[in-house]
Amino acid sequence: MGVTSLWFIDAWAVYDGVAFASRSAPEIRGTTRVVEAETTVFLSVPDLEPIPVGRITTGLRAARASYQDGYFDLDGTEIAFDTLEDIRQSVRRAYIACGLGPGGAATPPRIAPEPGAPTAGGSYFAGALDPADLEPDARPLDVVRRLLDEEPERLRRAVQAFGEGVVLDWEAALQHRLPATEDALGELYAVFADAGIWPGVEERERFVNDHHLLAGMHYLTERRYNPPLNPSPRRYSTQRLLTVAPCPSLPFPEPFSRLSDPLKLSLCDSEYLSSGGLAKGVPVLLAVMLVGVTIGGPSTFWHGVAQVFDHRMRSAIDWLERQLPRPVVPEVADQLLNGFARSWLQGPPPDLPGPASAPPSTGPSAGPFAPAPSPSTETPPEPDWLQQVIDDPWFTVRPEDPPPTRSAP
Amino acid sequence: MDHQPHPGVDSPRGASVRMADLFPSGFDQTYFCDAPWSERVKRWVADRIDVGFSGGNEKIVRRSLEDSETGLRVVVNITAVSLLVVFATNQYLNLYDRPRIGGKAPEPSEARERVDKTLKLGQTTYFGAVALGGTGVRYYGEYCMVLNLDQVADTTRLFDRDSFDILEEPLFDLILNEPSADPSMTSQRIDALRGVWGPDRVDMAVRRVLPELGHDTRLVTSGTISDAVLRDQEFIEVHLDGSFEPNAIEEVRESPDETAIEMSLRGRADRGIALTQTEQEWLVRREIVVELLAALRIPHRIVTLHGRGYQWA
């Protein structure tokens, strides 16, 4: 390998986490001598392990097949990487980033909350926080770790309050009931119960009854959901539930469309968790507790509920820290990745199908690129939009239904 | 260039005088010539007329490739989000006509421009591969769209290899690299590697498959034929003149490799092992695609590279 050799992205399917990359002398890029690259590899999610490709032309041709042609900065200069690991991280971060926001790729659309206006769930969460714990300038994970070590009860309470805020917001959005929506919310209740968000059955039943949460009462009280004794078959994976559950909105740090957004943003924006304190840390922690904790460790049969919950929080933080992005070199690539994530938070690119600002969604009943125009976030959803969601074949068509046409949904 | 006589070329079966001039002597003159593809197959068989199973194999290969129900198809590999976009927009498009992250190159890649110019490829050219079963070229997308036979025009152009191969030696020196490449020969050499879907697809594929077989000892089976038609990144390229709609898709195929990875991850998750965010995201997107294809009643099958799944599914 020559001392001047660097890594370049030959072709990149940004939304799908696959790319071709070559190591070569910079001066031959863009010319017909590009085929003299020293090596070419193929990277693909989920593991992004480099697979050697015999010739770079395989990668160059990929721009004819759903790949972006190379990777350039905004001035048109091709971005060179010192290491393949930086390219792997770039591919991974962009892949996660395009699942963000109201119209994330391959995720149902969800309303973007009004900036600065807390939702009911957000206000509920904010009311449970002790202002002394917020530490908005501190690294969120530092605050979370400190509380976990020193005052775990306060952290438990914050996580529980945020989880309760999620179901408060989702129940409030259930004015237009769809079976799939209720099922999804019911499953979220079950997932919360499994994760120990409520210390016990009495606490969770009291919560749903006190707030008159109809779906919660139905699933938790009437059905007597009891995870250890009566595990229910699940229709949605927990990861998928996170993409359709709302994220309680606070005036700070910023509003999110989905419960998965803070988690994904922390994994694709290298600066997101550099400050923000507890208000940022708790939403991420709750999401990770649902998808990032390996079963094992202490059980409630031998240990106290609080001890098990603390173990889950600790495991969640470990899972998150193992995957946190480190800044990619060169810096321009890191900034582009952060900007890419931020742009998806605002909505999908305008030339992608589906609304740039998505319609309100009350559950996983709408497709990845929903067909509906977006009403103003200040107006209630129009009946015709609701009908379109109901008619949407992405999630509502069942095998016994007549087949839809193969035209665009 | 030297003209080395070749039994097939100079045989009484009627070789073109010019054919040996197209490519140097080191090239197989029964292949790299300007004769029709059907003639190239005949010459190859004639050269091996005494080799035990060559005639029988030629018949079997041709029969397998010609069958309208189970024979050759155009396949287009596609990534998950691009596949979703096909159904959302009712059209197959290249999502990446402009960069999705970062800026644009100040000028088009010289390499790509020269390939496009040499092969007369335009903005409306869409690319596929010729296949008999299998899952296409995995690198270009984990989902392999198989186009209905009646959706591919007989005039669709074929190229006997990945068009970017002309950037690599030895074709680069013969076709693109001036002054070593004689410009007056460029188009003839390119034409010698071209074909047309209607009249040529079977002969091009037969000619591709026959040299791969063991004609001394046995007859071939269709799994071997499938593998020889499209193996790894070696394929006959299809240049579709324009895009296509979802109703042109006969089925979507996937490799067992992807399914094995998916099952492995789901197995780990079922045992309570936390997957990474990337792994979980990948699984969710696969769920969405599966649900979409089921909702639209588009056959979605897992097939093996060598065609057994294709045969017995």
Can you describe this structure?
The complex is a heterodimer of chains A (409) and B (313). Chain A is α+β, with helices and mostly antiparallel strands. Chain A folds into two domains: 6-97, no CATH class; 120-323, no CATH class. Helices cover 44% and strands 6% of the residues of chain A. Chain A has 16 helices and five strands. Chain A has a five-stranded antiparallel β-sheet with strand order 4-3-2-1-5. In chain A, helix 2 runs antiparallel to helix 11 (260-268), helix 2 (84-97) runs parallel beside helix 14 (331-346) and helix 7 (179-195) crosses helix 9. The longest helix of chain A is centred in the middle third of the chain and has 21 residues, at 152-172. Chain A is elongated, with a radius of gyration of 23 Å. The termini of chain A are far apart. Chain B is of the alpha+beta class and 313 residues long. Chain B has one domain (20-253). Helix content of chain B is 40%, strand content 12%. Chain B is built from twelve helices and eight strands. Chain B has an eight-stranded mixed β-sheet with strand order 5-4-6-2-1-3-7-8. In chain B, helix 3 packs antiparallel against helix 8. Chain B starts with 18 loop residues before the first helix and ends with a helix. Chains A and B meet through helix 1, strand 5, helix 2, helix 10 and helix 11 of A and strand 1, helix 4, helix 5 and helix 11 of B.
